[in-house]
Amino acid sequence: MAKQAPVALVMGSDNDLPKLENTLAVLKALQIPLEVRVISAHRTPEELREWLDAAVPNGLKVIIAAAGMAAHLAGACAAHTTIPVIGIPVLGGALNGLDALLSTVNMPGGVPVGTMGLGSAGARNAALFAAQILAVADPAIAARVAALRAADADAVRAKDAKVRAEHPSG
Ligand code: RP5
User: 19, 69, 90: which to mutate for ligand 1, most atoms within 8 A of CB?
Assistant: First the structure.
């Protein structure tokens, strides 16, 4: 049997996958092994329970759960485990993600889901948040997260220099 990855990205539908490119890219850049699954809280609830029952004892440490519309996937994961669950509400549907955001974020007390924002920033932050959880006990991951943060800051400084050159004071 393949070694269990420490992070899993589970999504409610393969239609969610194109909106999770940032999550995949950041975890890859940080060299964090990942399991990717399509499991629906509503359409395949038994598979969700079976997967969690196997993966968590085998070493799964953080779950990133992405879903749109009536987005109960992250909450269902959190109901079955005590490892950290990061929720990504997926844009789309008649309410353009507001339903997913509220379904993911507004958990009952005692069963937390760390909910990210809507859109590409939320997808990116989910990967970073998972990395930061692992980084608490893994200095190599912590160093890679710090390097990514420094690169982001350098990119802002470069944009600042460009804008200031285009619009000099005075
Ligand atoms: C959710 O319902 C999925 O996460 C997806 O965002 C949404 C619609 O699913 P599909 O009908 O596109 O498969 O459970």
Answer: 69
* Distance of CA 69 from the midpoint of ligand 1 (Å): 7
- Give the angle 61-68-37 at the CA atoms, nearest 5°: 40
Question: What pLDDT, in 10s, does the model give residues 103-114?
Answer: 999 999 999 999
pTM value? 0.96
* 117, 125 contact by CB (below 8 A): yes
Rg (CA), the chain: 18
Q: How far apart are CA 46 and CA 49, in angstroms?
A: 5
